[in-house]
């Protein structure tokens, strides 16, 4: 069953996954435009990251669990992104990324 690529082909050419990705990208771009310089504050950035993560997590999975995982990772990565030192931000992002992957089971 899993070895047949034709079983996963949609003859209409419709790709729902691409639509979900476009919606998620639009939400992320809109959040950056609306938040602007206020997102330099770690607290505000974490709140916006949680909101955007929840929305995109729900859009991509259609589940409450996906929304919560998106909110969790969005808040953490937004707060990490507001760290001023580039080297510290890169190292912290790597560590947090691994932790988030382990916690969410991906």
How would you portray this structure in words?
The chain is an all-alpha fold. The chain has a domain at 40-106. The protein is 73% helix and 0% strand. It contains 4 helices and no strands. Helix 1 (16-35) runs antiparallel to helix 2, helix 2 runs antiparallel to helix 3 and helix 3 (64-81) runs antiparallel to helix 4. The mean pLDDT is 76.
Spell out the blueprint of helices and strands.
Elements (H helix, E strand, L loop, with lengths): L15 H20 L6 H20 L2 H18 L4 H19 L2
Helix proportion: over 70%
What shape does the CA trace take? globular
Cα distance spanning the termini: 24 Å
Q: Would you list the SSEs in sequence order as H and E?
A: HHHH
Give a concise summary:
With 106 residues, the chain is mostly helical.
Any descriptors?
mainly alpha, globular
């Amino acid at each position: 069953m899993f070895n047949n690529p034709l079983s996963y082909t949609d003859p209409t050419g419709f790709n729902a996954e691409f639509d979900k990705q476009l919606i998620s990208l639009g939400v992320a771009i809109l959040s950056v435009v609306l938040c602007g310089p206020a997102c330099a504050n770690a607290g505000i950035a974490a709140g916006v990251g949680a909101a955007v993560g929840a929305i995109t997590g729900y859009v991509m999975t259609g589940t409450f669990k996906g929304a919560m995982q998106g909110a969790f990772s969005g808040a953490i990565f937004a707060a990490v992104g507001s760290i001023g030192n580039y080297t510290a931000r890169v190292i912290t992002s790597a560590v947090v990324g691994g932790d988030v992957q382990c916690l969410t089971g991906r």
